[in-house]
Amino acid sequence: MSEEKSKIEEQKVKDETPVKKIESKTKSVKSQPVATKTAAPEQTEQTVVYVGPSLPGEALTQFSVFKNGFPESVKVHFEKCTAIKSLMVPVSKLAAARKNLEQEGSAEYVLTQKVIKYGRGDE
Q: Best exposed site among 2, 11, 61, 69 by fewest CB in 10 Å?
């Protein structure tokens, strides 16, 4: 108790009114860098992985690997839900993207929520 009292005394303003310091109880969330692509996925020869949720009917499954572009059956979904295309990441960034999928507020998390809505027919 005396420790708290000394802190209050240290924080008195000029008119001798005690000021109590309030500490924030909010949790800080660190986000990994957002996965970025160096070229448009259709034009790249790099191998990419879809990190979003699987779509119904096996139209697109999570962690599908694509090299040298995408089949037409996947491109159709790009047009209907742009978040799907954004969840195609280079293999070299797969670990960071997977970690971000679980962090509320990260780009990957938000995009995943959009794909889930699309898969349900909400969007």
A: 2
